[in-house]
Hints:
alpha/beta, 2 domains, 11 helices, 7-stranded mixed β-sheet, Spore Coat Polysaccharide Biosynthesis Protein SpsA, Chain A, 7 strands
Amino acid sequence: xxxxxxxxxxxxxxxxxxxxxxxxxxxxxxxxxxxxxxxxxxxxxxxxxxxxxxxxxxxxxxxxxxxxxxxxxxxxxxxxxxxxxxxxxxxxxxxxxxxxxxxxxxxxxxxxxxxxxxxxxxxxxxxxxxxxxxxxxxxxxxxxxxxxxxxxxxxxxxxxxxxxxxxxxxxxxxxxxxxxxxxxxxxxxxxxxxxxxxxxxxxxxxxxxxxxxxxxxxxxxxxxxxxxxxxxxxxxxxxxxxxxxxxxxxxxxxxxxxxxxxxxxxxxxxxxxxxxxxxxxxxxxxxxxxxxxxxxxxxxxxxxxxxxxxxxxxxxxxxx
Length: 320
């Protein structure tokens, strides 16, 4: 490594490049306030606004506020995050919403923890007493979905749906974003858990939207989409446990139906209900097939996880 390369590496370590990523859809009423908040909190950061087919003046307002404005035509927050992670190059990434609900002043503390503890993600957990900031349906849904992830994947985050996160470069550039909508936060959380990444949480204030800004999150529609993603990730990441449930159900059904047949056979030596006996045999075979699918897919999942882990390890940890 020559002198120029050493100086560049030293500069990157002492002054990491920070990118603030703001996915937006119809946020003209709040985006200028959001940009200004992050500019004050992180004066050296590059602020990127990715517009997702807004019908209002989001693009114009964001440009006038001094952000780098780009567009993603495919609708959905997950699609926007995929594009941002692919396009933007930085050492540290701050992902937030463009609705001025997250506290920009918490970003420096979140970044400091990421670097000092060499973490890959710090989640800003939301704290708010304002009903209009965090609606009751959203609170209940968040607790329910967080509980599902905890039950399936073990110890997890206290707020898996938070859109306020700080990432290392190796997280962003090794994360294969597959989600299309608001389920992106759940996918990010499960990805970190499955690869056993060093992560942390930090409580941050959560405010109500400014007047004129409306939430795009549907409590029921998006809640069902997130639940469907959790179940799908359970099938993909833990196939033995997933298909083992069906194996157990098939075997229990076969056992329940066969007890009376077995008792009659022991008493009389006859099998009076042949169709029931055939059904029991079929259920046992289905159970065996289901378990075999789980074992085969577990091998595939292990290989995929190893590849993702190697891609993740190919990049340096923050602060190293």
